[in-house]
Amino acid sequence: MRALLVLLLCSGLWLPVQAQEAPLVVEGAMTINVLQAKYLYDRGAVFVDIRPSREWGWGHVRGALHLDLDEQFGALALPHWPRQMPLVIYCDSEVCPQSALAAELAVSWGYMRVFYFRGGYFAWQLFDFPLGKGQAGAVSLITEADH
């Protein structure tokens, strides 16, 4: 039994899975901090929360669009979305690389003003900026079929 414990400790199998750090930059997008994000928020930029519904329900930037990266984010590729609108894309924090992937996708779809908010929701919450919970503050998604 003792030999098995030593083997597990030496192999590192007992270590918890560590979160992957988000990249510092996304080509074609501007990386912004929480104060820059608030500046854009005050000027009407579109905030896009790409987290799963469960996390969105716990809290989000008030007025943000909820476009789960795995389920709904692809709707931004539709041609009716204006490519010049400023998009602030965020996730939880610096250990959530999905927001970088979402920013890359938005750039590849032709969006010209993509802001990668690397600090994400946790930084926004820490500064006590406007929050929504559950469906409060949600903005409904307009699809091509609605036009």
Task: Describe the overall structure.
The chain is an alpha/beta fold. Helix content is about 30%, strand content about 15%. It has a single domain (about 20-145), classed as Rhodanese-like domain (Oxidized Rhodanese, domain 1), CATH 3.40.250. The strands form two sheets. The chain has a five-stranded parallel beta sheet. A two-stranded antiparallel sheet has the order 3-7. The longest helix is centred in the last third of the chain and has 11 residues, at about 100-110. It starts with a helix and ends in a 15-residue tail after the last strand.
Distance between the termini: 67 Å
Number of E-type strands: 7
- Give me the CATH superfamily: Rhodanese-like domain
- CATH C-level class: Alpha Beta
Q: How would you describe the shape?
A: globular
Continuous helix count:
5
Mean pLDDT: 84
Q: Report the sheet with the most strands, covering strand number, pairing sense and barrel closure.
A: 5 strands, parallel
Output the radius of gyration.
18 Å
DSSP helix fraction? 25-40%
Number of structural domains = 1
